[in-house]
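Researcher: Predict the fold of Copper transport protein.
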Amino acid sequence: MQMTFGWSSSVMLLFDFWNVHSPAGMVLSVFVVLLLTVIFEFLKAWRLWLGNGFAHHQPADPVASSLSESSSGLETSPSESSLTPIESQPPTTSSRNRWILHVLQTVLHVLQVTLGYMLMLCVMSYNSWIFIGVIVGTALGYFISYPLVERMSCYGHTMTGRHEKNF
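Model: C-alpha cells for Copper transport protein follow.
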C-alpha cells in the first residue's frame, strides 16, 4: 500500500466491493465521497440547531427559584432553604421531551462520528482525487448547512413542534 498521495484512478475504498479500476469509477467514487461529506456537515449543523434551539427554552431550576423566593438572608440561610424538601413531581412533558431530544442527539452523534471515521479512512487511501472530494464536500456542506442553521435560529424552537419568531 502506498503511503504518499497519488493521482491514480485505481483504489480500494473501505470495503472489498468498493474497488475502483477506471476513471469513470473514480469520478463516481469521488461523487459518493463528496455526498457523504455533505451529509456529515448536515449532521453537525442539525445537532447544533437541536442543541441551541432547546437551550433557549429550558425551564427554570426549581432549587434556584426557591432560593430566590426567600425574603431575606436573616430569616433563612441558603443552607437551610436548600434542606427544605421540594415536592417530587411526576415527569412532565418537558422532561420527556428533553429525554427524547437527548436520545436523538446521541443517535446523531454516533452517526456523525461513524461517518467521520469512514471519511478519514477514505482519505487514508492516499488518493488525491478522493482527498479533493472530501475537501470540496466539506466546503459545500458547510456553505449550504450553516446558513440554514442561522435562518432556523431566527425562529424559536420548542419541543411541542411550534415555531415562534424571535426578534
